[in-house]
Amino acid sequence: MSLSTAGAQTRQEWRDSLETLSASLKKDPNNIDLRLRKAEADIQLERWDYALAEYGGILRADDKNLAALYFRAYVHEKLRHYAEAKADYDAFLAIEPLHLEARLGLAHVLQKMGRKSDTVDELNHIVQMFPDSADAYAARAAYETELQQYEVAVYDWGEAVRRRPEHADYTVSMVDVLLRLGRKREAREALDALVSKGTPRGVLKEWYDRIR
Q1: Angle at 76 between CA 135 and CA 101, to 5 degrees
Q2: Residue ranges of the chain with pLDDT lower than 70?
Q3: Looking at residue 29, what is its pLDDT?
Q4: CA-to-CA separations, 129 to 57, 103, 122, in angstroms, rounded
Q5: Structure confidence at residue 6 (pLDDT)
Q6: pLDDT the model gives residue 92
Q7: Residue 41: CB partners within 8 Å, gap ≥ 6?
Q8: d(CA 111, CA 124)
Q9: Cα 181 from Cα 154, distance rounded (Å)
Q10: DSSP string across 196-207
């Protein structure tokens, strides 16, 4: 689930959209689609409190509106309202349990709350639920790297790379961990594989330099 036109408009265009949507809502205040679009504009303009109020109004009218639950969780997270973000992700996942982005959002919130065991459990659950997802393995690998659990992180970065070999960031993250473990030969092989798939060697100079 993503914002429909994120990045496609300039800030001024978002302000113009917000003005138009606000005018339309004065004529049709119960139009859920208009309210969702206005909240999206609020997010794009980083008007977090306005977006929060808009999603709250939508959910008072329809407490199972998935878009409002998902994006209110996102806004709560931006505002560091982690308990509220978790509650919204939990409510969303009670309705739509097989939603990867919401699962990843919940894991990230648990991490921000300092709930290490719950974060690990959720990330393990995500990998079990989405065994073909590179993003699932990458999320777990990133947390393992943060915890300095480098051996298991290398495995998970490798699984992410295997599922999405064209994603240079995954390979670079794996190389970083390999270098922390002193496994320079494997790091070079991973970089060479990226180059063979079309990544310019110059882009990877920093990493090649660390292997010397």
Answers
A1: 20
A2: 1-8
A3: 86
A4: 33, 10, 10
A5: 47
A6: 98
A7: 14, 17, 18, 21
A8: 13
A9: 9
A10: HTT--GGGGHHH
Structure tokens at 66: 């998935």
Q: What residue type is assigned to position 182 of the chain?
A: G
The per-residue pLDDT for 212 is 84
Q: How many helices (H) and strands (E) does the chain have?
A: 12, 0
Q: What is the DSSP string of 162-187?
A: HH-TT-HHHHHHHHHHHHHTT-HHHH
DSSP 8-class letter at 130: -
Q: For helices 66-78 and 82-95, what crossing angle results, to 10°?
A: 160
Global pTM value: 0.89
- Rounded CA-CA distance 124/119 in Å is 9
3-state secondary structure of 95: helix
DSSP element (H, E) containing 48:
helix 48-61
Q: Cα–Cα distance between 123 and 100 in angstroms, integer?
A: 11
Please tell me the distance from the alpha carbon of residue 135 to that of residue 13, in angstroms, as a whole number.
Answer: 32
Do the Cβ atoms of 92 and 77 come closer than 8 Å?
no
